[in-house]
Amino acid sequence: MNRFFNVFLGGRSGLIGLLVMAVVLFVAIPLTLDVFRVNLVAKYLSYAFVSIALVVCWGHGGILSLGQGVFWGLGGYCLAAFLKLEAAGNIAKEATSDQLKALTTVGLPDFMDWNQITELPWFWYGFKSLPVTIVLMFIVPSLLAYILGTAIFKRRVAGVYFAIITQALAWIMEMLFVTRQGWTGGINGITDLRTMLGWDIRTNSAQYILYFATCILLVGCLVLCRAVLNSKLGRLLVALRDEEDRVRFSGYDAASIKRFAFVFASAISALGGAMFVLNVGFMSPKLITIEPSIYMVIFCAVGGRMSLIGAVYGTLLVQFGRTWFSEEFPAMWYFLMGAVFIAVTRYFPNGLAGIFDDYIVPLGKKFTHRKPPTPATGGLKSVPSVTTVNSTGN
Amino acid sequence: MGNLSTYALGVEHLTVSFDGFKAVDDLTFYVEQHEVRVVIGPNGAGKTTLLDLICGKTKATSGSVMFKNNELLGRPEQNIVKMGVSRKFQTPSIYPKLTVFENLELSHPTGRTVMGSLFFKRTAEIKDRVEEVAKEIYLSDFVHTRGELLSHGQKQWLEIGMLLIADPELVMLDEPVAGMSVRERQQTAELLRRMCNGRVVLVIEHDMNFVREIAHKVTVMHQGKLLAEGSMDEVQANEKVIEVYLGH
User: Fold this and answer.
1) Which of A3, A83, B230, B235 has its CA 20 to 30 A from that of A167?
2) Residues of B (167-196) whose Cβ lies below 8 Å from A
3) Is residue A313 part of a domain?
4) Is residue B2 part of a domain?
5) A119-158: per-residue pLDDT in tens?
6) ipTM for this model
């Protein structure tokens, strides 16, 4: 129990941070915002999965992936494929005979029909069943990350070269999904998703339920990430980031540890993509290209790349800012975003979480330590100043 | 080969060529069991490259490195480490953001696989071993200090401790006392003497007083080749050595 408390919840300070976040997500936001905004927050939070994944692989492991949106998008596409098949089935059931005549292939997604595909491609078969889809949703992005990770890390490609390769991956993926129209829906993506197993996902109540589901899964992933970071593997990641050779010459296979972090991050990201599809009702290649992937890195950097909870707040803050600011001053938004990113990396390398740790926590300590400890109680010495620094800092 | 050799480490005709430049050139020498061997030589003689070749950081062009009758060349670094070979780098290479305890714990030879490290448990046995090594390297009072906050000398000791905790059979140290104060040098010499007990040790060092204190035998390298070999006195009397290295 004690071990669980320390490993998964991150001890007392970790638990407080988690509880505050839970209150914000589960109470404050649903009570103060209307359903449209709640749905918007759910959309934002689906990106937070990627941010916390980046905290693990970039912040702690030093593996900067500029193509994390690809794994997020693959997870989303998998679920979208399932929902699309269901939607196609519904159309076939509900359609009048005139509409059916217009369709050459009944029960196939509309975009396949438009592209003269008359039979479901074999790799779409799995998406007929929800359990298989959920498995594929994790397997497909993880497998891609595994293959890529093996090829890259075994050859000791790292740092900026790794970032460039992942960026190229994002671009390749976009091209692939845009050009294979009949298989993927092309530039429009997979749209018009309305029901999951007959449950209408567009009603107000469904949007509230999906919002809470997103929050619960996000907290679950956060706790899982924290457990990984608090394990010896988490410390190894920090060690690898700072002194890779030393790790290698201490008998570790550095490549497989980095690959694990990369695959783990891709699986967490994929879940976020799937939640995006449920909350928003579509998936498109514009979401898996370079730009969104860079946004994801900015969310993580603004929140604090060493802090899981910080990354969630960073994601929310930047996206709120984006929505608000681009409504008010549409032309200025990109400049502001660039300025924020430069300011954060230059002055606050640990982002919001760093500002909190450096300025707010000492302020709180000052406040609570104002009362001098009464020496009369005897025996109890005042707590010595903390020399133990939790290096993982999450 | 047939008969088993008596030496612990045998370097034979070891050569590495970087675009035609031979940093180590047809080098052959043998180190006995329980021997402390110091390699000296002017800058650029190929000393650090020699260690890089033995531990697998640099791939050799030709030759052989036998340790306890096993060929080391061609194996991945982590497998060479698992055979009991460990190496300290010239600039202290420790994990700056981790505490001394965590630095040592990561170097403990348990849970070295992905799953092993994910489900690693900090047992009492490992804790005791870490404390024991911390005491040995004079860092008992700094167990919970982050690596980056240690002094230069303490960082060097920490890295030596990180080798020690894995209980290696062959220890290679690249300038372990560079940048240390006189007192730290003495402590390091003491530490190494304790540490060398029962192990094969290969040290690169420039500090002749320190070399004299710890070396059983000295190998002198010059331009990638073996220049001389013998006891400290023999080497210091050797004219060629005086000319290229000690004389200045």
Assistant:
1) A83
2) none
3) yes
4) no
5) 889 999 999 999 999 999 999 999 999 999 999 999 999 8
6) 0.90
